[in-house]
Design brief:
The chain is mainly β. The protein has four helices and ten strands.
């Protein structure tokens, strides 16, 4: 499968690769020379990724309960095995075009230390290994606030994939929630 799949109309197969338990719980070690494993996903027409060490699980979209007076990036909360998880829309943080939810939409449950959230994404593609040497820092022309959310970019199968700094994204969404009195 390729990351170059064009967005599909509702009802059509998107060609997204289904991630298996092995993708997340493989005993295969990534050597320092190899770099890191990343989970690639689509936001609008662009490809992004997070380091797999921050991914707890990938969930199908269930009921998302909207919260009154929530910051724009917090779309609501959902229940995951009895726990309440905030759901963050990174498209709003990166000023990307919104899209309707489809059968390919997912919530990527991410953690950084004690902080956690669910990232609402348009599709999850695959887990790939990238070397640290192939990751280029964010461009200096990018807004500093947005650049702080990024590790950098790399090429995966000819596509540019932007790596998100999970800790900064969670902190920013949590900070926005605290500013309106939502954080616990």
């Amino acid at each position: 499968m390729s990351l170059m799949n064009e967005p599909q109309k509702t009802g059509e197969s998107s060609g997204a690769l289904v991630l298996t338990t092995e993708d997340f719980y493989s005993t295969r070690q990534v050597s320092a020379a190899t770099g890191r494993q990343i989970v690639c996903f689509q936001l609008s027409d662009q490809w992004y990724a997070v380091d797999i060490t921050h991914v707890h699980e990938v969930l199908r979209i269930g009921q998302i309960i909207t919260l009154p007076n929530a910051p724009p990036a917090i779309v609501g909360i959902c229940q995951v095995r009895g726990a309440i998880l905030s759901v963050t829309d990174p498209k709003k943080m990166f000023n990307l075009e919104p899209r309707l939810l489809t059968g390919q939409s997912r919530i990527i449950f991410i953690k950084a230390g004690l902080l956690e959230t669910g990232l609402l994404v348009d599709a999850v593609s695959r887990v790939v290994e990238v070397t640290d040497e192939c990751i280029e820092p964010p461009l200096s022309t990018i807004d500093q606030l947005e650049a702080g959310l990024l590790v950098g970019s790399c090429r995966v199968e000819g596509m540019v994939v932007t790596l998100i700094r999970v800790e900064a994204l969670i902190a920013r969404s949590r900070g926005a929630a605290e500013s309106v009195g939502m954080a616990q």
